[in-house]
Amino acid sequence: MQKDTLYASTHEALGAFQFDESVVAVFPDMISRSVPGYQTILTGIGELTRQYAQKDSQLYDLGCSLGAAALTMRRNVEVENCKIIAIDNSEAMIQRATEYVQAYHSEVPLILQQGDIAEIEIEDASVVVINFTLQFIAPEQRQSLVNKVYQGMKPGGILILSEKLHFDDEQMQQAIEHLHLQFKRSNGYSELEISQKRSALENVLISDNQQTHLQRMQDAGFSTAGIWFQAYNFASFLAIK
Q: Which residues bind S-adenosyl-L-methionine (predicted)?
């Protein structure tokens, strides 16, 4: 695993964060050192896939990056005639994900596509994963995407949505931010790296609070929705149709 040192030296002209080839090269290290509970979330995605995947259905990984969630889903499908569709708008991500997918043999088809998840069709879905992706989509497009997921889902299907949260209470926000900063420091990130990455993500990663996510899923039509895992300001929601 290549170590993430993208922001270890000073950048005079710091551009907005992009999922380009430089990020792709260090992405597994970056996300494991930046997102508390990431591996636990992947394990949970596998278990929930095992429980809720329906035969003769499609499973979606929307914003798949390197395909970690899609591969976890594929390892845990136990019913017949399932197909996994993994989509990302980054060409570099899809190219590298293709290498990872080809390294693991499975009878479950896994199709990688480069594209905009806001524009693709969701059909016959029993499991849909949006793992730390909605936060990078324009806020005004988020409800329509969740609506589309619900409408393309079989009864009994699930949405697993993982996101960085913010808290409306200022004291709570400061406390949770401090814990997250300490998490990154303990994983070897310097103050320069933390500061520069935060600047690069500003206006690119726009988080919602817990209530906004739950209301969005309720408005889409989901009968059941709640947080199944949370670590600091990172949470994963489960919504059931």
A: 38, 63-65, 88-89, 116-117, 131, 198
- With 0-12 / 13-18 / 19 or more C-beta atoms within 10 angstroms meaning exposed / middle / buried, residue 239 is buried
Determine whether the annotation assigns residue 88 to a binding site: yes
Q: Does 89 count as an annotated binding residue? A: yes
CB 115 within 8 A of CB 89: yes
How many CB atoms sit inside 10 A of residue 170's CB?
8
Tokens linked to 201:
């993500």
Neighbours of 236 (CB within 10 A): 25
Would you say 117 is a known binding-site residue?
A: yes
Q: What is the pLDDT of residues 12-32, one digit of tens each?
A: 433 443 444 544 545 556 777
Please report, for the chain, the start and end positions of each structural domain, with discontinuous segments joined by +.
38-166+205-240
Residue 94 labeled ligand binder: no
Q: Which CATH architecture has domain 38-166+205-240?
A: 3-Layer(aba) Sandwich (3.40)
Give the list of residues 6+ apart from residue 126 with CB closer than 8 angstroms, or none: 52, 53, 54, 57, 58, 59, 82, 153, 154, 156, 157, 158
pLDDT at 203: 57
- In whole angstroms, what is the distance from residue 125 CA to residue 30 CA? 30
- In this predicted model, which residue has the larger pLDDT, 56 or 105? 56
